[in-house]
Amino acid sequence: MARIVVDPVTRIEGHLRIEAQVEGGMISDAWSSGTMFRGIELILRGRDPREAWIWAQRICGVCTMVHALASVNAVEDALGIEVPDNARLVRNIIAATQTVQDHVIHFYHLHALDWVDVVSALKADPAKTSQLAQSISDWPLSSEKYFKSVQDRVSALVASKQLSLFGAGYWGHPAYHLPPEANLMAVAHYLEALQFQKEFIRIHAVLGGKNPHLQTFLVGGMATSLDPNEPGATVNPERIDFLIEKAKAAATFVDQVYIPDVLAVAGFYRDWFERGEGLGNFMSYGAYPQGSIKDPANFFLQQGIILNRDLSKVYPFEPKNVTEYVTHSWYEYSGGDQTAKNPFDGETNPKFTGPKPPYEFLNVDQKYSWLKAPRYQDKPMEVGPLARLLVAYASGNQEVKALVNGTLAKLNAPPTALFSTLGRIAARALETKLLADHIVEWIQHLGNNIATGNVKIHNGEKWDPNSWPKTTRGFGFFEAPRGSLGHWVEIEDHAIKNYQAVVPSTWNAGPRDAHGQRGAYEAALIKTPVADPDRPLELLRTIHSFDPCLACAVHVVDARGHTYSRAEA
Amino acid sequence: MISSRNPLPAALQARGVSRRQFVEFCTSMVAALALPPRYVGAVMKALAQANRPVLVWLEFQDCAGNSESMLRTSNPTVADFVLDFLSWEYHELIMAGAGKQAEEALERVVREHKGEYIAVVEGAIPTADDGVYCTIAGKTALEIATHVCTNSAANVAVGACAWDGGLVRAKPNPTGAVGLQEAVPGVKVVNLGGCPHNPANTAAVLTHYLTFHEMPALDQYNRPLFAYGNIIHDQCERRAHYDAGRFVEEWGDEGHRKGYCLYKMGCKGPEATYNCPTVRWNDGTSWPVKAGHGCIACASHRFWDTKSPFYKRLPSVPGFGVDVTADEIGWVATGAVAAAMVAQVVGNAVRDKIRPKKATEEADKPADSRGA
Questions:
Q1: Does residue A305 belong to any structural domain of this protein?
Q2: Of residues A369, A505, A512, A535, which has the active-site annotation?
Q3: Same domain, yes or no, for B190 and B329?
Q4: Are the C-beta atoms of A284 and A303 separated by less than 8 Å?
Q5: Residue at A68 is within a domain
Q6: The model's pTM
Q7: Which of A292, B88, B131, B133 is buried most, with the most CB atoms less than 10 Å from its CB?
Q8: A21: which strand partners?
Q9: Is position B319 within any domain?
């Protein structure tokens, strides 16, 4: 029996530490710990709610904009603001673009090296690699000469004995199963995806000035001015054309590179359709409103809860059922750490009780993480692309059903295969395709509105803080790339009185609760094989399949009231 | 820029770098640094070394936005940097190794390349409660930063948080967060403020260092003058509307659709210095003001506290404001342009390594004179 520690877990956002007990070559227990804390919600107190999104966006720079969107949603909910239809469209376009970009980066740059042995690519035959690539896709970059040039580049890197980012990889690990040709193809696509992501994200630059950290949201709408004739408008017909061109290129990349690669990799790692399941409870807040945000039934992706992997029933989501425990988190509740609290009653005081750094192991029987443990009706939930797809599937979303069933058929896998490490990877890829296919349509819709003179982008009725009630509160939600994201805001005298974010990776990466129930990562790691405890590649596969985002996950609300600036007209 | 008499160095050829890519890269870097074309040869030589200089990228109290921003560079691309020009041996967001192997990779750099490597730092460093608010491999951020940044050849702080503590340090600064130069007193740091940093500037700074073995000329905040010497308002494409008194009055109004000045909507451009309007973002696609939202002065010192509330119109400063006469406006414009020209001259003096602090302070005054 051995305790293994992976810290830092790399190829993620933020600072995550995993401790795991290994018995007989298999993980018997695991503990997930967030090791960084900033206190952004405390910093938000007392500030102008209209600019909360600018601050909250900085919770994360990988899934940038998702906190901005959840924040304006929360403030709009508190103030009773409906945004114009164009603002809804622009938000959907920005959010879907983010998700597509984020998923592509995740697969190639954060996750692929768990499955792809870079050094093995040196042994590949470029001619055979070309044949392999052409057998699975029409993507034009597939000649022997092309793969030879990529191989030469890797070769020069290895020969230089300076492997750069690839230096400390687990190359040659027995769990790598791809043939050299598949490895070479994947390395080529790793580099192509680097090009792709920066090109595609120019959609964000047009709409938001820059990426990361777009600067275009507004409480009440968006700052993207629209006009059919003006060159000075943020969006005009010329820019619509630019956006459509980028979106179409993305849909092609996803269809011809990302999806075929996922199917190819999955074919060599079929045992991972049976590993890494975890909780079997899934939650989605629903995303991409097709009309009012008050009408989740008409969202592009549905809202709901699935329990015990039972896809025959989708339970409705109620915000009041969200609570958080701090039993194993470095915080204190005044009423004791055994009971959970709803975010509106959030009351937290950070108190580190872990070992004094530098330390070797955490006291996992006590408190061991800066993440709280969120629960829905006292149950731990998995959130993310798999949860979203399952909720949409079980809700009868025909497009999702066709996509999922078609893919399972191609992989010759049963639906239960989705409850796994590979299931998460497949779901993420399918969601990428689903969104990439629709972004073009949403941009065209926006373009049509502009062409017909519908240029309203902001509802300014409540811009003046003097139009606000003395006190109010709201809940804003969104499905970020990594899962269900909620912001809770309380406003008093034009200033933020209380702010709380409960984010995807808190659901997935959180520690145990008062009942000892594990979080999603902890549960998913049970029974994961570990061939070599010194190089726990298999552990990384399951953790990375969730796409951890730890900066998001850690937060605090403090009972003390600080006021720095108030909204002024 | 580089003539056909300058063939691609063999070391770069072996790394699969195309000549075309390289020309583009050299052109953009030399332009960004305001260097004359004759420096292209020096840049080429520096980048073609057989042993690539080693770089480590540390993340502390960060959002990884600066890492992501780096992934969006074009000339060179991040792949060029990582694979061809540098040996990028530690970067949690994208490195292959994890856990023990990652720790060892960092330790090996400090041991084997002591005094030679470049350390890039992203994120603030918490100092309260013995630094327990950020640990990596059981060690505090403060311990790691001290160890890595006192043994490096050069340190680059990217983004607001690594420079001055950024958002993490905003009131009430729950974790006692500070930037690198405060956390590790005495280390030499080049600060690339901004939320996030603009990777075009960072690429230029790294190139300058690789070429001349020293950092470009810096201002009083240790920011490179070529990037932080000019006032945004003076470089703004909406400036003519300001001068003519044409303002956006409400979001989405006719003025907004026509690209009028965003001053009344809270734009901090008149108080901010940065090359955002000229370098722009994401391959020069756009920048916030072009996209329709006011500037939040994200490259200014302690901007989260000093420049917020972000929608509040800048207070009337002498000779400045929308109600002033045309004469007054003209005076402001002239004064600001003069300051900008001083800064531009200073920027052009990069190669001559002059550090005229006084001129810089003047240029920066409107941006940061309101205090923390």
A1: yes
A2: A505
A3: no
A4: yes
A5: yes
A6: 0.93
A7: B133
A8: A3, A29
A9: yes
